[in-house]
Design a protein that fits this description.
This protein is an all-alpha fold. 57% of the residues lie in helices and 0% in strands. It has helices at 8-33, 46-55, 61-73, 87-91, 100-114. The protein is elongated.
C-alpha cells in the first residue's frame, strides 16, 4: 500500500462528510449537489425541476449554530501569559499568520462540523 493510498476507514469517513460539506456550503452547495439532496419528483419535467432547484434556498442553521457555539467558547481571547519565549509562537501559531486564539477557534469550529480533526506537529 502506497503512503498516499486511503484506507477504507478514511474513505468511509469522507463519504459520511459529503452531506456535512454540502450543508456547510449553504444554498449554492446544495443546489450544486442537485438530485443528491433535492431529488426530481416522479413525472416532474427537467425544466420544472431546474426552476424548482434554482429557487430552493437553505437557511444555514447548521453553520450558524457551530459558528455561534465556537464563538462563545472563544469569546475571551486565549492568551499564554508569563511565557516571553512564546510570544512569536502565539502570534503565528501555524506559520500562516493565525494567532493562537484564532487557531483554537478555527480548530473548534471544524471539529464540531466534522466530528474529528487532527493536528500534525513537526
Amino acid at each position: 500500500m502506497a503512503v498516499n493510498d486511503k484506507i477504507k476507514q478514511v474513505k468511509d469517513a469522507e463519504a459520511d462528510l459529503e452531506l456535512v460539506s454540502a450543508l456547510w456550503g449553504g444554498t449554492q452547495a446544495m443546489r450544486d449537489a442537485g438530485k443528491t439532496y433535492l431529488p426530481q419528483e416522479p413525472g416532474e419535467e427537467a425544466d420544472a425541476y431546474k426552476n424548482r432547484k434554482n429557487r430552493t434556498t437553505l437557511t444555514n442553521i447548521f453553520k450558524r449554530t457551530i459558528n455561534t457555539y465556537a464563538g462563545r467558547l472563544f469569546e475571551d481571547e486565549v492568551k499564554i501569559e508569563n511565557q516571553p519565549g512564546l510570544d512569536s509562537f502565539t502570534e503565528n501559531v501555524d506559520l500562516e499568520g493565525r494567532s493562537f486564539h484564532r487557531f483554537g477557534y478555527d480548530l473548534t469550529r471544524l471539529s464540531l462540523r466534522d466530528g474529528i480533526r487532527f493536528i500534525l506537529v513537526d
